[in-house]
Amino acid sequence: MGPDPAVAAVRSAVRESLGGRPSGGLVLVACSGGADSLALAGALAFTAVRAGLRAGGVTVDHGLQEGSAARADEVVKVLRSLGLDPVESVAVSVGRAGGPEAAAREARYTALNEAAERLGAGAVLLGHTLDDQAETVLLGLARGSGARSLAGMAPCAGRYLRPFLGLTRAEVRRACLAMGLAPWDDPHNEDTAYTRVRVRKKVLPLLEEELGPGVSEALARTAAQLREDADALDAWAARALEEARDFDHALDVRTLEGLPRAVRSRVLRRVAVAAGSPAGTLASVHVAAVDRLVTAWHGQRGVDLPGGIRVIRRYGKLHFGTAEVAGSGETRRKA
Ligand SMILES: Nc1ncnc2c1ncn2[C@@H]1O[C@H](COP(=O)(O)OP(=O)(O)OP(=O)(O)O)[C@@H](O)[C@H]1O
Description:
Layout: H1 5-18, E1 26-30, H2 35-50, E2 54-61, H3 68-81, E3 87-91, H4 100-119, E4 121-125, H5 130-143, H6 147-150, E5 156-157, E6 160-161, H7 169-178, H8 195-211, H9 215-244, E7 251-252, H10 253-257, H11 261-275, H12 284-295, E8 303-305, E9 309-314, E10 317-322, H13 323-334
Parallel strand pairs: 1-2, 1-4, 2-3, 4-6
Antiparallel strand pairs: 5-6, 7-10, 8-9, 9-10
Helix pairs in contact: 1-2, 1-7, 2-7, 5-8, 5-9, 9-11, 11-12
The protein binds adenosine-5'-triphosphate.
Pfam family, one: ATP_bind_3
Main location: cytoplasm
Binding site for ATP: 32-37
């Protein structure tokens, strides 16, 4: 008798995601002890040996909940019992900036990056599922996001791999239990004070009830399609940027005018971020304001962006720089 179908599915998802890695390389699973990342650990332990890879694990203790250190110890024990080696527990201190959830995520990724560097791991696996992806897309739609955000989480981003984006949370949980692993259920996942939990527990079930089953799968498919579109537009923008930029890193307005707005706004965003405007606070209204310097210019002096970056149009070029530098340019122009 073969393995339980859910177990077979998680193993095959991990095998597919690890395909083509150089043999002998180390792959880490980022494990919280929840059903998703525990199933991931179980599937990795099974798959890695057969793929000629070494498998290890890291758990991060955010220190935010009662008993979190003991739980991290528990996770370490389970990962070791699966045969993973090395296994590390990393305690992080979580700041408050941007809210506790965002701060915990940032501290976690910093810790995972450091662990990957220290241990020489080529890949880190994350347990996000199709349901997480559907929630991300719905939240993005509610915020009016563009294609890049609606593309959701990438199956492969740098060293991070998400093998379970094609599997439902229920399927992954079944696999976890069928492998004899006891998941820890984070009480936060039940707390409807969090928008994401309300989307999971109220909005998506209502959509499924009213529109028919398969809404989450459909949202995840939308994400995958938009990822391809957004990748294509980004590649176009990268080429367009090379064409529009002169030796001085200023952008030629005529070249920009000839681009579709979707491509031009990507070029402008990219240059603004490279100049020092923080990606997180640079909103589409800011990019639209810079775009008007190109398409609807009435001699206005310039546009201020977050991070003290100023964009000015001068002699058919857009210049991005700190407000002081741009300001001195303006003075020169007037002189
Ligand atoms: N404490 C932890 N230690 C190690 N890995 C973790 C921890 N918490 C989460 N992860 C990893 O991140 C994945 C996603 O977890 P979760 O959905 O709780 O995080 P999120 O903050 O919503 O997602 P993201 O970090 O991508 O924004 C988990 O499946 C697991 O692989």
